[in-house]
Each structure stands twice: as structure tokens, then as C-alpha cells.
Amino acid sequence: MTRKLAVEVDPAEAGFDPGRLGRLDGYFGRYVDKGLLPGTLAVVARRGKVVYLGEHGFRDVEAGLPVERDTLWRVFSMSKPVTSVAAMMLYEEGVFDLTDPISRWLPEFAEPRVYARGSAQAMATVPATEPIRVWHLLTHTAGLTYGFQHAHAVDELYRKAGYEWWVPRGTDLASAVEQWAALPLLFHPGTEWNYSVATDVLGRLVEVASGQPLDEFFRTRILDPLGMTETGFEAEGDSLDRLAALYLAVPGSDAIVRNDLLAYPVDGRPTYLSGGGGLVSTAADYHRFTQFLLREGELDGVRLLGPRTVALMRGNHLPGHVDLEQFGRPLFAEMPYDGYGFGLGFSVLEDPVKAKTLAPQGEIAWGGAASTAFWVDPANEITALFFTQLLPSSTHPLRQDFRRFVYQALLD
Question: Which residues fall in a coiled-coil region (predicted)?
């Protein structure tokens, strides 16, 4: 069943200045009118009720198909919080502890080695001083990386093995994880933060520990119970007609070009089930996921996680409550580094002053490579979603500007 969002309460009744909140239309509209974005859909809700909903432009520029409220989007790394919830459900059931070495379920990680010096052609490694633990995967502190980082000799090894933006054709999750385990780590587990394939490895851990393929676990344990019927690793039938096309920013210009090669396959069950970046979803579905997080693990009478588990996930798990600027490698992430820590599956706003944002401490958030984003603000009971399809997500300051326009309109 296709579900479409609609504005449910007047912004003034929810504590917003309607005129100020309406500035969002001009902001996103200008990006589309100038050809900087193909199309956008933004959602703001308070206390579970939608107060703003704005769509602009096209889901498919070439075909002249407009963005609609039931448009289907590749959400890339906004898949990661779903995988993290899956892992925490197993944690609650006593399947593993957060401090358990992952080699108990993934023996290929029994003896990890760590980069010491040298190039990708002549690299020296040393044994890891600490095993990779479950919490390292949840927090991107395992020492894994992404090939697209282009910042380290280990990144180059990932690319040589065929792992840059996606995986080699025909590769499944189990074989990808085995190949990553054979590559050196960037650093000893738990000593730094680096955005990485860690959540894909976590997805494989969920598969082995639960005895279910990741798509089946998602569907039966999370998506169907939450009523997220249009979220998954594949789209079929009329859903494909609603799927947004993917675009790429042209370096050195304001132009964007369609890029179907970087659009991961969803027309049928994919061979590779990426818990780190393979889902498609709609605004209505992901809105339900944000409400589940806001309501501390429960939605419409369905409880998947206990409140204390969600509180643990929302905490900053970087040692000493430092931010990503202090603990992370200054590479790519879906959020700024200054003032933001990292919880179990998403960023955590630790210091709004350092982050130079109007959002409050305790906000959790993440985004996807195609510039999609979400945040959940427990203090003000606000959730927000933004959808477009432009790679890379660092092209425009959309996420921080979106926050500014929302919070400058909040009056109470």
C-alpha cells in the first residue's frame, strides 16, 4: 500500500512561525530553479505531526517526472541506522554483548592486522592490539574504511579489490566481508573514528547471528512491524515508476548530470545486501522510522527496542565524549566533525556552540551519499527529513541550512 504524507497540524499550533517556516520553500526552490538539484522533498514534524511538507522539481529531469510525495529514493547511508537497530534488537535478546569480538560470528576477523607503514604496493602491517568488537562496528571505530576515500594506502587496496562506490559484480555480502577481513585495518580498533564499511560488516553479523538473510530480518523484524512497506533492497511493479533518478555534480561547475552507473540496482533482489547503503524508501516510510526513534523504540503499539537501549544508542560513544574533530580522521562523513560525537549508528550533537548550529545537544542524525538526510531532536520533539538524489552529499551545505531554517522558525 502506498502511503503519502500530508501536513497534519498548523505550524503555529506546533510552536512555529508559519512565515518563517515557509522560508524553506524559497531556499529549496532556488536550488532547483538554478539547476543545482534535480528535485527535493522536505518534511518537518513535531510531536509526531507533520507541520511542513514541500516538494520541488523533478524525480527524473529527462523524463519530466515531478517529485511527488510518494517518490521512492535511494537513501544510501540512511540504511545504516536501520542495520544498527537490527543489531541492537539482537543485543537486547542476549545474542551478543557490545564488547564481544566479532570473530565469534565472523571467524575471518580472528587475527586482524593493522597498517604500520608503506604504500599499497609495499605495505608493512602489525597484529591488532585489540579485537574488533561489536561496538566498534556500530561506531565506525573498527579500523575499516571505504575505497572512495582516496586518502590512504589501505583505501587503495580496497579499490584494487574492486570496492570503491559499490562491490564487484556478482559479489554477495558474505564474500565481501571475507575480502575486507583479509585487508589491513587503518588503525587499531577503538583508537580512531573513520567512516567505513563497518555497517555492512554489522549487517553480515546480523545475518550470521540471527540465521536470516539481512533483507528477511529487516522485513520481518523491523519494516513490516513499523508499517514501512515500501522500504527495502528492491522495488518492483509501479514502485519502479516512482523511483528517482540519480545525478552527479560536475566538478568545477554548477551543472549536474544523470549517472545511472552509480545507482545501485533495486529492480529485483540484489546479490549484495548492503546494510550500510543499499535501501530504497519513501518519505512516509522513513518518517515512521524517525518517529520510532523519537518515541524511544515504539510506534503505534509496536515496540522493537526498550527506551534504555535507545538512550544508549543516542549517547556519544567516542572516548571521553570528544567530538569527531578530535577523534576522527579528517576525511569524509555525512555530518560535520566539529561539535558532533557518534552514537550507536548515527551522529550525536555534543556541542551546539562548537558546531555553530541552532539545533540542541542530543540531536541524532545521519545522511546518505545522494544528499538525503534526517535528524531527530528529542528535546524539542522535532524530526526532519530531506530527500534529493545528488552525489556527492558534500556538494552543497543543505543539511546545516535545513536546520537553520527549521530552528529560526521555532518560537517555544
Answer: none
- Over residues 70-125, the pLDDT tens digits come to 999 999 999 999 999 999 999 999 999 999 999 999 999 999 999 999 998 999 99
**262 lies in the same domain as 393:** yes
Instruction: Please indicate, yes or no, if residue 2 is contained in any of the structural domains.
Output: no
Residues 6+ apart with CB under 8 A from 131: 101, 102, 103, 109, 112, 189
What are residue 377's DSSP bridge partners? 382
The verdict on residue 412 lying in a domain is no
Assigned domain for 332 exists: yes
- b/e sequence 38-75, b meaning 16+ C-beta within 10 Å: bbbbbbbbbeeebbbbbbbbbbbbeeebebbbbbbbbb
Residue at 312: amino acid letter: L
Chunked into runs of 10 residues, the chain (412 residues) has average pLDDT values of 86 98 96 96 98 97 97 97 98 98 98 94 95 98 93 93 90 97 97 96 98 98 97 90 95 91 89 96 98 98 98 96 83 75 97 96 96 98 98 89 97 94
C-alpha cell belonging to residue 320: 571521553
pTM of the model: 0.95
97 plus 202 within the same structural domain: yes
DSSP E strand stretches across 150-292: 247-249, 256-258, 279-281
Closest CA to 321 of 55, 123, 83, 139: 139
Whether residue 305 contacts residue 294, with contact meaning beta carbons closer than 8 Å, is answered with no
User: Which structural domain, as residue segments, surrounds residue 342?
Assistant: 11-79+213-407
Q: Please state the domain count of the chain.
A: 2
Q: Rounded to the nearest 5°, which phi and psi values hold at 144?
A: -80, 175
Same domain, residue pair 297 and 373: yes
